[in-house]
Amino acid sequence: MSRHSSIIGISIAGCVVAGSLVWGDDNPRGERRAPAPKVSTEQLRGIFFDDLDEAIRGQRPSLSSLRKASEAKANEPTKTQQPDQSSADSWAGLISPVSLEDEIKRVRLHFDSIITTPGAFNSGGYQDARLDLSVLAMLFAVIQQHSGDVRWKDEAGAARDLLARTAFNCKAGSTQVYNEAKLRKADLQDLVSGTGLASREAEPENVWSEIADRSPLMEYAERLVDSLEGNSRDAASIESNIDAVKRDAELIAMLGEVLTKEGMDEADDDDYVKLSRNMTADSKKVVAAIERADFEGARAGVSQIRGRCDACHEQYR
Question: Which residue intervals make up region (Disordered) (predicted)?
Fold first, then answer.
């Protein structure tokens, strides 16, 4: 046998061995296996359906019905999360953009006048700063949700958060807090001048418990009512100070609503909420009387506001 024939023979033998490994007996080691279980039809009854129609309740869907359902789903308008308009509409019904803007300018000028030196700030100026910053934070919170065209709305949330944080820190005077108040003074200057805030990060929603304490807002309410009374001694006084009277009345109406917001002190007290909302309602009546030139009616409304304010101060502080 030639060497070539030997090589061919060895190759054939190798293929035979490999083939036996691949295609050979399924149980080459002679392992013992359990026989396949025998299950009767009765044992399977109740587990599997005899017919597909039994598994479907109602009419069996057809291809055309499935296609129609798919097309109807595709044509449904996409649901997107829309901002809650209730708060925006309520603010617009209480205070005008002009009154908001004018009050921010007025309070900001007063705030500038008290941020002078660390000594003056630590000697009591921090209390005035806390009041001004609390009021400003509240005003910017309202602007953020106001449906009208109000200046600074794009930066209202950031201004609200910056001013509220410093207002809380102004519960005591120190050089550190004074320096922080100076930064807010610069921020307000940049905002009012149109330069804008350096930082515009802000919480998306108003969290009233983090915006302002009730104590400075109650003090603010007292000052507003004093100003309102001073300009409403008689019909002639109201006519001479009509813009100021209207602005103060709108601010009181807005403030009455703020004091009832979730997170504010006593906002879950029914009597307190009733007093606040009555003050808001009386303030709206004053504005309505001014708009129809009923100055006597406006003066009577101012007296009612004073009564609401006094009743609230007697029970809550």
Answer: 63-90
